[in-house]
Amino acid sequence: MEKTYLMVKPDGVQRHLIGKLVQRFEEKGFQLIGAKMFRLTREQAEYHYEEHKDKPFFGELVAFITSGPVFGMVWQGDNIVALSRAMMGKTNPLDAAPGTIRGDYALNTGNNIIHGSDSPQSADREISNFFRPEELMTGDYPV
Ligand code: CMP
User: Can you tell me the ipTM of this complex?
Assistant: First the structure.
């Protein structure tokens, strides 16, 4: 079963959106197999955003994601990587369609509420950065 790593960023946590965001993915039909509230270490943040390390906004990105607690989640379901990214909307809220998470809740690219893995390979890498195997439910469970 395909898995993804979704993370309510510090702006989403501060705006009390955790419940609404979890509800969207539950109602879509995905299964939540792990979740926790935590604060990223600088090392976890730099590893998570490694592909952006040469971008001018890298420092800002790491500072923002470590600025407060996040709500990290592992979800599973058919085609969950592509479907959850469609539900999140485009990175820049100016391009994010109404009805998507960023279209409905975000005003700028830096503070865009939620992260979602961009491929199954990224999901594996991201999940192992934040979760130990024993923190995740294994296999399918009844819903
Ligand atoms: P996300 O797609 O979750 O992961 C990379 C993040 O980089 C992206 O969300 C944005 O929050 C951030 N980002 C992308 N472009 C910019 C930018 N020009 N300025 C600040 N942050 C950016």
Answer: 0.90
Say whether 52 is catalytic. no
| Ligand 1 binding pocket mutation candidate from 9, 57, 58, 108 (most atoms within 8 A of CB) | 57
State the total domains in the chain: 1
How many CA within 13 A on the CB side of residue 4? 21
Residues with CB under 6 A from ligand 1: 52, 57, 60-61, 91, 109-110, 112, 115
Q: Is residue 141 part of a domain?
A: no
pLDDT reported for residue 27 = 98
Q: 104 alpha carbon to ligand 1 midpoint, in Å?
A: 18
Sequence-separated (6 or more) residues with CB below 8 Å from residue 42: 62, 66
Instruction: Please report, for the domain that includes residue 76, its CATH number.
Output: 3.30.70.141
